[in-house]
Amino acid sequence: MPRAFALLLPPSEGKEPGGSGPPWRSGTCALPGLDGPRAEVLAALDPTGRGVAAEPTLPALERYTGVLYRELDAGSLPGPARRRLRATALIASGLWGVVAPGDPIPAYRLKMSARLDPLGRLSTWWRPHLTEALHDRLARRVVWDLLPQEHAAAWDPAAVPTARRITVRFTTAEGRTVSHWNKLLKGALVRHLVTTGLDDPDGLRAFTHPAGYRYEPSLSDLDDEVATVVLRHPG
Description:
With 235 residues, the protein is α/β, with parallel strands linked by helices. The protein contains 7 helices and 11 strands. It has one domain.
């Protein structure tokens, strides 16, 4: 029987400008327990309230326009896959902590690795808040954790009772980790995961990545609690 799963995704530096929704306000995003910390970061970034805080909003899935989201191409997903994406994905953010695909957010620029006075480095500042908020949201779920290092530092997965956490590594034929095109490569994988509802790495045997990467069970660490999946390019 398929198990409930969740996706942890990075944001993108590329963002659609403008928007048609009202400015962000408390109570409009997923994980409302984060609204207090969100307001703190927003105030530190924009003390006057006349910058980001006053800007119009778009749903996060429309706001983020980077290579992962272009490759995911959410607008062309079949209805069930689109609903699964909206129900299971959480997108990390230096400003918002995490947001769901449908959450209304303004255009902004703030990396999770940035230092912001008086809060300090955001990944460190967010860590207790996100760990607490994700505890119940991810409990007993299979979590496909596709976060890069700077966003992974913003929560403590060991303190969250997931059913299984799965990370993914793309490698060259020689075994070197592919980093430059990482987000691009993850976009096609996310599309496959929300289309299939896959809750076990073994299901990737049938996955042919558009760029040629193939699942390599012999190179993967398939631990029951924390697994690392390797997708290798044939060369």
